[in-house]
C-alpha cells in the first residue's frame, strides 16, 4: 500500500502496478511456504507421537507364553496410563497447531488430514486395546 499506483516524475508518469503485483505475489508465496513448513513440522510431530503409541501397541499385541511374561505384561499395563498422560500435552499441542493452520484456511492433504485425526484417536485406541 505504500507503493503508489503511479509516480509523477515531472515529464514522465511511471506506472508502479507491476512492482506492486510482484511484491504482492512474493509475499503470498512466502506466506504459503511458511504455512507448508509449519504443516510439515506438525505432521512430523504427529508421526513421532504415533511411533511412541505404536511401540505400546506392539507390546500389547504380544501374547505372553509364561507366567513371568504374564506378570511383565500386567506391570506394563499399569504403566500405560502414565505414558498416555505424558503424551497428552504433545497431542494437544499438535491438534492446536492443526487448528491454527485451519484458521488460516490452509488446505490439508489427505496425509495431513489423516495424521491429524489419527493423532486425536491414539489415546482412545490404546485405551480400547488395554480394555480388551
UniProtKB/TrEMBL annotation:
Record's protein name: Dynein heavy chain linker domain-containing protein
Organism (species): Spongospora subterranea
Source species taxonomy: Eukaryota, Sar, Rhizaria, Endomyxa, Phytomyxea
